[in-house]
Amino acid sequence: MPTIEPEEHKSLREAVAALGKRHGRDFNREQLWSEAAKLGYLGVNLPEEYGGGGGGIAELSIVLEELGAAGCPLLMMVVSPAICGTVIARFGTEAQKQEWLPALADGTRTMAFGITEPDAGSNSHRITTTAHRDGADWLLTGRKVFISGVDIADATLIVGRTEDSRTGRLKPCLFIVPRDAEGFTRRQIDMELQAAEKQFELTLDDVRLPAEALVGDEDAGLLQLFAGLNPERIMTAAFAIGMGRYALSQAITYARDRTVWNTPIGAHQAIAHPLAQAHIDLELARLMMQKAAHLYDAGDDVAAGEAANMAKYAAGEACVKAVDQAVHTLGGNGLTREFGLASLITAARVARIAPVSREMILNYVSHQTLGLPKSY
What we know:
With 376 residues, the protein is of the alpha+beta class. It has ten helices and ten strands. The chain has helices at 7-23, 29-38, 57-69, 76-91, 94-106, 222-257, 269-297, 301-330, 342-353, 358-369; strands at residues 111-114, 130-134, 137-148, 155-163, 170-178, 184-188, 199-209, 214-215, 259-260, 263-264. The strands form three sheets. A four-stranded mixed sheet has the order 1-4-5-8, covered by helices on one side. The protein has a four-stranded antiparallel sheet with strand order 2-3-7-6, with no helix packed on it. A two-stranded antiparallel ribbon has the order 9-10. β9 and β10 form a beta hairpin. The two termini are 35 Å apart. The relative contact order is 0.11.
């Protein structure tokens, strides 16, 4: 893994940062999405033969991080090109690739991702959304919750379970469910966190899908699922790092300019040192994110799983601390709409909670990396 970012990545950062600066904190999501798509940023990780940039999660994470650092992150980048685009590119049929990848790359279509369920929580093995065959079709039934952007997505990639004909045990499978499919309904969740992308509870009531709605091999199981979950963790880390950088930059500017008793407050170590620590934590989290992206793009799914979880954990912690310190640096001004930091207090918590809690990451590392026994 290169420890120094290559020139093409530096150039990409500069270009995306310039785009983010033009849109700023009061950005219009649709306008930014459209412009990012035209510049090739949304599909930078997708194969060139399907209209993408031919890069990987490493490049896509740069795009999201830099937009976040400019105050205009695009949450659906975590879902549409990163999770859904990656899964279809790796495991989809040729027809699915032709239908979806060019449109995901140019931003004309988006896809949501549905895995979380009300009663399953962090235990994906307890998913109750099931699919069974009805002739040549599939019938999909179940519920999902906290699914982002379903109202603006053309389809949702749903994680369900089918019965293994050999063992009778349920195994995870992925289905493309069109937004207007009969029996597929949504209810918006009233969230305290206000974001452009809304959260929904989904109900699937015997949703009839053609055979070609199944993505990949019916028997692939967890392999295909984690092909999407590892990029999700890496991109969540990018989202968090970008948010933390934005908050930190606001605090640094304020600490340089704000003068009390003829001295800029940034000259005082009680202000300067916590900001320096926040910067260090964000840089360390970025290194782990880059390692995870490198491993994933190199095809090492096992090592990428460990690194992606660590990156998401480190970035979530660094983001929360950076936002908290930024607000504290500005004092009362940190809670005003003018500086745009107060809303990040709530938003930063998301990086600790979703798509997997920090406690479950610690479980993963203790079991998978350290070899300690499970308590559950």
